[in-house]
Write a structure and sequence with these properties.
The protein is of the alpha+beta class. It contains three helices and two strands, in the order H-E-H-E-H.
C-alpha cells in the first residue's frame, strides 16, 4: 500500500517519533534543572525571602497527588499549606510528610 504523497516508511516514522520524544523529555529535564539551580541561587542570596514563596494545597492525594506532594515538599520556596483527602490514611500520611 504505497502512496505517492507520503514516502515515509514505518521504520522511519518510528525512529523520528522516538527522536522527537527523547528531545522533548531532554528539554524538560534541562529546563527543570536550570529552574532548580536558579531557585537555589536565589535562596542562597536571600532574594527569595518572602517574594517567590509559593503556597500550595492538595485536595485528593491518590497516587499522582502523593508524587506531586513529594516533589513540592522538597522545594525550598514552596510551603504546603493544606492537605485534604476523604481517605484518612492517605490524608494522615500526607500530613506527616508535610510536617517532617
Amino acid at each position: 500500500m504505497s502512496n505517492d504523497t507520503n514516502n515515509v516508511s514505518r521504520r522511519e516514522f518510528v525512529v523520528k517519533s522516538a527522536a522527537v520524544g527523547a528531545a522533548a523529555l531532554s528539554a524538560s529535564a534541562i529546563l527543570t534543572s536550570v529552574a532548580r539551580a536558579d531557585e537555589e541561587k536565589k535562596s542562597e542570596n536571600g532574594a527569595g525571602s518572602k517574594q517567590g514563596v509559593l503556597n500550595v494545597g492538595f485536595i485528593g492525594i491518590g497516587k499522582m497527588g502523593d508524587n506531586h506532594l513529594n516533589q513540592f515538599v522538597g522545594y525550598k520556596n514552596v510551603i504546603v499549606k493544606a492537605v485534604a483527602d476523604v481517605d484518612t490514611t492517605r490524608r494522615e500520611a500526607a500530613r506527616q510528610k508535610v510536617d517532617a
